[in-house]
Amino acid sequence: MISPRVLRNLKKEFRSSHLAKLGLVLVVAVLLVAAFAPLVAPHNPTAQNLDQSKLPPVGFAQTSTETTSKMVNGSIQTVENTTVIEPDLAHPLGTDGLGRDMLSRVIYGARTSLMVGVLGTLLAVLIGVPVGLVAGYYGGSVDDALMRVADISLAFPSLVLAIALIGLWGRATYSIPDPFVVAGLTPAMPEASTLPVTVVVVVGLVNWVWFARVARGEALSLRSEEYVKAARALGASDGRIIWRHVLPNAVTPIIVLGTVQIAAIILLESSLSFLGFSGTTLSWGFDISQGRDYVSSGQWWIATMPGLAIMLSVIGINLLGDWLRDALDPDIEGEGGA
Amino acid sequence: MSQRTESERSLDSETLLSVRNLSTRFFTEEGQVNASESVSFDVRDNEVLGIVGESGSGKSVTALSLIDLIESPGRVTGGEVWYREPDLAEEFRARDGVSVEGDHVDLRTVPESVRRALRGPSFSMIFQDPMSSFNPSITVGEQIAEAVEVQRRARANPRSTRSRTQGYGFARYLVDTLVPGRGYVTESSKERAIELLEQVGIPDPAERADEYPSQFSGGMLQRAMIAQALAGEPDLLVADEPTTALDVTIQAQILNLLRDIQAERGMSIILITHDLGVIARMSDRINVMYAGEVVERGRLEDIFENPVHPYTQGLLGSIPDLQNPQPRLQPIEGNVPSLFDSEMGDGCYFADRCPKAMKSCLEKPPQRPVEGSEEHTAKCVLADRSYDPSEAISGEEVHE
Q1: ipTM, interface predicted TM-score of the complex
Q2: Are residues B226 and B314 both part of a single domain?
Q3: Are A230 and B134 a contacting pair at CB < 8 A?
């Protein structure tokens, strides 16, 4: 699995690829920001301040023109009052309609997205990989049965399936206490992060199929390997063979798929939050849906800032996935690799 | 019918394994393939039994059926595999559905878990291609040590079938690998693996044990595979084309090694090959297979000095003779027949390629004893008569 050769390939590929470096920088940045959100965020992301609502981001002074009509001497006069809203350096990315700091919200939103992305992918792996390995290893009717189930769940559009499941189960959430607040380091910050449990379960259930398919394909080719036959000839059980001989050799494409799936699940979570299904009010998708109302009235940043955050983290994770694929895929291994 | 007398022959105490009428079929979408048909043979203690035949003659299928490793869509459809194991015989003597005769148990009738438990300590197998027979992501030493460990744990509690399969199970394995401080493979198994590597002639075994299969050469890996197969100290080693993938000098080394180990441990070997040179060098007795059947069997000298079946004669005729070089070798005309059930005729399967086909070959010949040696039999009308050109038929006539 993680042999010196793999590490060497990873390093070689990393040195030669600027995109891989960019991806790693983005992902590490998002991870750090999410982990140390209470220390990084300048304000409490949930604190409202109506006096300072709709402040624009630094560098984007907003002129708003207010037109008032007055009846003067029997005729209508329009008076235009132009006010300039200056950005406040305390809110570098501006504030939303309720005066909450956008930067802090984007920083905290990373927590929700990453938690859902990683846990949802983990769940999908835990369901999909065993199903795929069993289907591929045993073949025959077991394979047919499991893969038909997979095909059926693939036939549903994932967003529709997700909404249906959330409608069925409701929006369960779980509060994770923030260690920095518990330790008393950042008393002004929210005490807990909300993990939208239903969303995690739903994205796991929607995305397991991809892992099942990849794992099945690998198991299908690995089961006819001579060393699997040799292990059986030595008395190994099916479980042992799958665990010891099939899984480790199937792990590379699963890792690569996993990174891509984290990005896909972050997008799915944002879509669900945007539609109001997530159960947490501190997420990128939720902020975009809030900001949507303000776009037409000129406060574009409320929707754009979380959108940019989604874009950068998804790009970062995908670039990282490309790097892993190029480095781990034995097909393009070797001296003159692409 | 002589086949009946064959299966009625009693099991004597020197017979380690007796295979009777073992048939394996593959049920493909194109039809049923009779890969091996009513194959019978005995393996005695401390002997090398050679199985020889062309590609596609059912040699490997027979070996895999024997230790129950046939994969779907193939299935063992009939026959008996009597194996001498007094403890097992005792355990199953009164059990319904299990055939026991003296110290022998018919392995086709015992539960699958028992058959699996026998793989390793009783039968072991080495395969043709050493390069692909090791998991590329685990070191060679660890793979051998794991085989040692499995057998050691199985042996620690040999009483009942249930406990005999302990230590093989997945749940136990998970606990051992996931709980810290409970590594599955113990130090003594690792040492044993290094010992085994040393026995099969790998230099610096302690260092080589920590290397991955990709760092080994083909010959070294074949040695390592033999070491792994010996981990359970099997009574019977099935060697399926053990030297085919190796170059000639390494072949000789591996064959000598197998011979030495066989003599030293007193185990039996079933050697499967298409190479008559290998057979001549290694075997005590020989089965010649054609189209899924054993067509001739006998001791080494019976087959090489007095071959009766025209197929065996053909095989021997296609070896270059260094003493009397011929301008051309005498190959057997034609190809191995289709093994699809629908396309196999009623007569002798070799008749259409046989230079000595006669009218009586249109009926299936039984296995008949050949005069001059009590162990020599052939599935051919020529076993007890001589060729009569007046009855000759051609290949085309056979097809009609």
Answers
A1: 0.76
A2: no
A3: yes
Q: Last residue of some domain: B193, B211, B234?
A: B234
**Closest chain B residue to the Cα of A240, Cα to Cα:** B170
In a shared domain, residues B230 and B309: no
Q: Is A8 on the interface with B (CB under 8 A)?
A: no
In whole angstroms, give the CA distance from residue A16 to residue A327: 11
Query: What is the phi-psi region of residue A17: left when phi exceeds 0, alpha when psi lies from -120 to 50, beta otherwise?
Result: beta
Residues of chain A with CATH 1.10.3720.10: 4-55+92-332
Nearest CA in chain A to B138: A1
In a domain, B6, yes or no: no
Alpha-helix residue ranges (DSSP H) falling in B71-186: 86-92, 112-118, 140-156, 161-164, 170-178
Sign of the C-alpha dihedral, residues A228, A233, A235, A237?
positive
B137 contacts A249? CB cut-off 8 A = yes
- Taking only Cα atoms into account, the Rg of chain A, rounded to an integer number of angstroms, comes to 25
Whether B283 is covered by a domain: the verdict is no
Measured over the CA atoms of residue A322, residue A328, residue A332 and residue A334, the dihedral's sign is positive
- Look at A234 and B229 and tell me if their CB atoms are within 8 Å: yes
b or e along B174-213 (b: 16 or more beta carbons within 10 Å of the residue's beta carbon)?
A: eeeeeeeeeebbeeebbebbbebbbbbbbeebeebbeebb
What's the domain count of chain B?
2
Instruction: Give the residue on B whose Cα is nearest the Cα of A241.
Output: B170
CB proximity A232 to B under 8 Å: yes
The CATH number assigned to the domain with range A4-55+92-332 reads: 1.10.3720.10
Chain B CB within 8 Å of residue A130 CB: no
Q: Are B305 and B230 members of one domain?
A: no
Chain A neighbors of B116, CB-CB under 8 A: 235, 237
A244·B169 Cβ contact <8 A: no
Residue B95 lies in a domain: no
| Residues A235, B117: C-beta atoms closer than 8 Å | yes
Task: List the single residue in B120, B128, B135 with the smallest CB-CB distance to A227.
Answer: B135
Inter-chain CB proximity B116 and A140 less than 8 Å: no
Distance of CA B7 to the CA centre of its chain: 19
Q: Which of B128, B150, B212 sits opposite A234 (nearest CB)?
A: B150
Per-residue pLDDT of chain B (400 residues), as tens digits, is 344 444 445 677 888 999 999 999 998 888 888 888 889 899 999 899 999 988 878 888 898 898 888 887 888 998 889 998 888 888 888 887 788 888 888 888 888 888 888 888 888 888 888 888 888 888 899 889 888 887 777 776 554 444 444 444 566 666 666 665 566 777 888 889 999 999 888 889 999 988 888 888 888 888 899 898 888 888 899 998 888 878 888 888 888 888 998 988 889 999 999 888 888 888 999 999 988 889 999 999 888 888 888 888 888 887 777 777 777 777 777 777 778 877 777 788 888 888 888 888 888 888 888 877 788 888 888 877 777 777 777 766 666 5
Confirm whether B271 is domain-assigned.
no
The last residue of one of the domains, among B212, B234, B256, is: B234
Same structural domain, B228 and B311: no
User: Measured between CB atoms, which of B72, B120, B171 is closest to A234?
Assistant: B120
Which residue does chain A place closest to B228, by CA atoms?
A234
Q: For residue B242, which of B393, B322, B87, B125 has the smallest C-alpha distance? A: B125
- Range of the structural domain that residue B391 is part of: 298-333+345-399
